[in-house]
Each structure stands twice: as structure tokens, then as C-alpha cells.
């Protein structure tokens, strides 16, 4: 038996080969979790694009410097 506050309902008909699954939207009285709010704010809109660009540039320079230092020590003349 399913609890009444469940938002996913599954029903299977004996006469048919089709299964029916219905998902009800979350009630508007429930607030989104803190993680979901922060994730939505940091991953979308102008702020999200800015953070992705900044992260990409930072990753590029980190790999570049790591490669430079590795190459320097590997090819260093003795």
C-alpha cells in the first residue's frame, strides 16, 4: 500500500500489455531544498555562465602550468 503523500502512482492493467505511470507535480506549499536553490542559482542565468567560463579558464591555466612544469623537469639538461 502506498502512503497518501506519495507523488508517483503506478497502475498495471491485467487485460492490457501497457503499464501506466503518472507523476503528480510536487505541491506548491513545499519549498525547494537549499541545495536545489543554490544549484539553480549557480548553474543558470548570467551568473551560471560566468562561473562556467571562469572555471574553464582556470582549468586551462592549471593544465597549462602543470604541463609546462612537467615538460621543464622532464627535458631539463643535466
From TrEMBL:
Gene it is expressed from: SMIM1
Keywords: Membrane, Transmembrane, Transmembrane helix
Entries under InterPro entries matching the protein: SMIM1
GO-annotated cellular components: cell surface; plasma membrane
Name the record gives this protein: Small integral membrane protein 1 (Vel blood group)
Bias type Polar residues, positions: 1-31
Annotated stretches, region: Disordered: 1-35
Domain of life of the organism encoding this protein: Eukaryota
Sequence intervals crossing the membrane: 53-74
GO molecular function, a single term: protein homodimerization activity
Leader sequence residues: none
Amino acid at each position: 500500500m502506498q502512503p497518501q503523500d506519495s507523488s508517483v502512482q503506478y497502475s498495471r492493467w491485467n487485460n492490457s500489455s501497457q503499464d501506466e505511470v503518472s507523476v503528480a507535480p510536487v505541491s506548491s506549499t513545499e519549498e525547494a531544498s537549499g541545495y536545489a536553490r543554490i544549484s539553480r542559482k549557480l548553474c543558470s542565468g548570467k551568473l551560471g555562465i560566468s562561473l562556467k567560463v571562469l572555471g574553464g579558464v582556470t582549468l586551462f591555466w592549471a593544465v597549462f602550468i602543470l604541463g609546462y612544469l612537467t615538460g621543464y623537469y622532464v627535458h631539463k639538461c643535466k
